[in-house]
Amino acid sequence: MPLDPQAKAFLDQIEALGGPALSAMPVADARQLMEAMASMRAVAPPVLASVADRRLPGPGGEIPVRVYTPAGSGPLPLLVYFHGGGWVIGSLETHDGTCRELAAGAGCVVVSVDYRLAPEHRYPAAAEDCYAATRWCAEHAAELAIDARRIAVGGDSAGGNLAAVVAQMARDRGGPGLVLQLLVYPVTDHDFGTASYRDNAAGYLLTAADMRWFWGHYLGDDTARGAEPYASPLRAASLAGLPPALVITAELDPLRDEGEAYARALEAAGVAAKLHRYDGMIHGFFGMSAIMDQAVAAVREATGTLRFAFSRR
Known about the structure:
Layout: H1 5-17, H2 27-40, E1 50-56, E2 63-69, E3 76-82, H3 96-106, E4 109-113, H4 125-139, H5 141-144, E5 146-156, H6 158-172, E6 180-184, H7 195-199, H8 208-219, E7 245-252, H9 256-268, E8 273-282, H10 293-311
Parallel strand pairs: 3-4, 3-5, 5-6, 6-7, 7-8
Antiparallel strand pairs: 1-2, 2-4
């Protein structure tokens, strides 16, 4: 399908700003750009009972997190959320609006994890931080006023990769139990040869060159590690025993095919997986509910799926 008119208007706005491609920028400049873009698509935040920053113990030092608590009596279910940004950029701030929407819409506590970024901290630092934060939340459920039997993980782009990896780690390492993995246009394979990489290589915000830049920073010179399942969850020897999944993809996204391949692989392994491709959409749209109707629909689908998963426990 053609590019959605609202997505086109956003891309036209970005093009009018000018400036170099993300993949041509120093890391510090790319981080500043993502912060600025987040402010461009800010939405009026829903009312929550509390939003608090804290630090959790992690394998490489303290992990900053932001805890979003909606109104309601506890213990509440929990979504542990991992922001996108290619493991290199992104922060608690860039995904603050998304986390507020998810907490309010799903009626759950959201813990947003500010994991270590590459290239300062290469693979698997981000994944280990995300797993450590998820495990800590489960083990300290009473402190967070959450129900340890109703925990989900989620994320977008590289955060979707981390959510899928944490689900595999939880299965492989004896917990915690998870009721859902919310995977929004996730990175699932260190492979640039798919049709969506070729067809959507440029012109739709995230480019193939950007993804090579991200992977290069995440893996460094040890590119062979990209075949490991905690880097490329699609390459796991088995996907059996993983929690149910909602996989959201965007039609005009280099990552479309690998996200959809992961949904199919989950189903083939006996895991309940719902796949929804949003036609005419671009990478990053999930966080643009202030300017795109399909983003509103995607967030509504995500929160509805979370509510259903939480209700089954």
